[in-house]
Design brief:
With 96 residues, the protein is mainly α. 62% of the residues lie in helices and 0% in strands.
């Protein structure tokens, strides 16, 4: 039996959960800034969280994301995770 791939709404919800699970949004301001700062981790976390919140609202309103939307969000999360790794806020093995 062939498994069906999730539709883009389900895939976007899964991506949002994955990002929220792997990215440390709950860090204090002091923790976000840390010792090393290549790119502002705090601003990047706020930006990514707002993107996730925006997509959650759109999904709740019935908006159907395209594959390009999924790809863009995943790429943003990966880039931000990379900066967070460089700043020591995300372990090496975690990538959104």
């Amino acid at each position: 039996m062939v498994e069906r791939k999730p539709n883009t709404q389900v895939a976007m919800r899964q991506l949002i959960v994955q990002i929220r699970t792997q990215i440390p949004f709950d860090l204090s301001e002091e923790e976000r800034c840390g010792e090393s700062c290549e790119g502002c981790s705090g601003k990047l976390l706020i930006y990514l969280e707002s993107e996730l919140d925006e997509w959650q609202i759109k999904l709740d309103q019935g908006v159907v994301p395209g594959f390009a939307d999924l790809s863009r969000l995943a790429a943003k999360a990966k880039k931000i995770a990379k900066v967070l790794r460089r700043n020591g806020l995300v372990p090496e093995e975690v990538s959104a």
